[in-house]
Amino acid sequence: MRILFLTDNFPPETNAPASRTYEHCKRWVACGQDVTVVTTAPNFPVGKVFEGYRNRLWTREWVNGVEVIRLWSFITANKGFIGRSLDYMSYMVATIIASPFLPKPDVIVSTSPQFFTPCAGYILSRLFGRPWVFELRDLWPDSIVAVGAMKENAVIRTLRKMEYFLYRKATRIVSVTNAFKNVLSGNGITPEKIVVIPNGADIETYWPGSRPHELAARLGLSGKFIAAYVGTIGMAHGLRTLLDAADALRERNDIAFVLVGTGAEARSMAAEAKDRQLSNVHFVGSVTKVEVCEYWKLCNVALVLLRDSMLFSHVIPSKIFEAMSSERPIILGVRGESEALLRDSGAGIVIPPEDSKALAAAIVALADSQSTCGIMGKAGREYVTSHYNRDVLANRMLDVIKETAALHKATL
Description:
With 412 residues, the protein is an alpha/beta fold. The chain has helices at residues 16-30, 81-98, 116-128, 142-146, 154-169, 178-186, 213-218, 240-248, 266-275, 289-298, 319-325, 337-345, 356-367, 370-387, 390-411; strands at 2-6, 34-40, 58-63, 66-71, 107-111, 132-136, 172-175, 194-196, 225-230, 255-260, 281-285, 301-305, 330-333, 348-350. The protein has 15 helices and 14 strands. The chain is globular and about 70 Å long.
């Protein structure tokens, strides 16, 4: 079976859509499937093409048996509605133009969070006469409103109508959370066409281990209790809560904060930390996936934070699973399905979103009882191994894709 997978993020980018797509696709190839990924030159989130790549009309490479076709797109940093929309739309247009030169698939898969990639999936499904699976990672454009990038207006309402048009046209929808499925079915989308396959962790890659002492020494953090945020530093994450907690704990010389990643808010966050003379906050910048694993081992506790918005009660940040797999406890500032998951696993502490006092108190509690960190970390590793193993989840999604292709053939 040939699978055509459309995504505007793919390794060496390290964000959640890139990682999930790659981890699934390489496993499908190992199961004997032919997989072609159509993407762009890697540039997320800073909007600069990664070293060794160029933003060309068409390039092809092979990554662990996966055929990767990179198309030209308008490239911009992950901020600003107009620039990002041009980025998303240019990928959609490039994919449609390139469609005559792509291998004819048995099934097409396209992933959000934004829906111009699913738009391309729908159009290609009509051009090829093949079924289309919509992988739903975010409720876009609602997330634009949630982070304050735009207010509810006619443009947002038009985009939302387009969003639900795509849901209705998709042959199947693969949602990453139960909450997304509930929202869609509550708004008239047939629940039987929606399958929930959550994010997970590659438990062989994210493996618990001793602290990398050379890395700690290089950062000047030897002997420190490290609270780390690993991921995109963007508008959705409410990370000034972290700065406020660091300010409250500036007298605790044994505690340090490390932020690994970059994004729309990274520069202003770093400038604010410098203005506030927060010497206990360290910005690392963008790192490779291999280095991400080392930073998980470096930290004593993982911080998973989002802004206090009802929309974010529907999401489960993928860094939860990486931290659990790395046997690191979590302090979670997210409501809803993520909160229920963490309480069920016993892998950390839940605090109210954007509550710096609660964040500081939770960090102090774990810093003063590192045996508790060990207990929570082991609970998380056991939980993710049992419930969110990437091997199992990739096979489940492949089963959905095979079933979708088979049903389509049966109707011909």
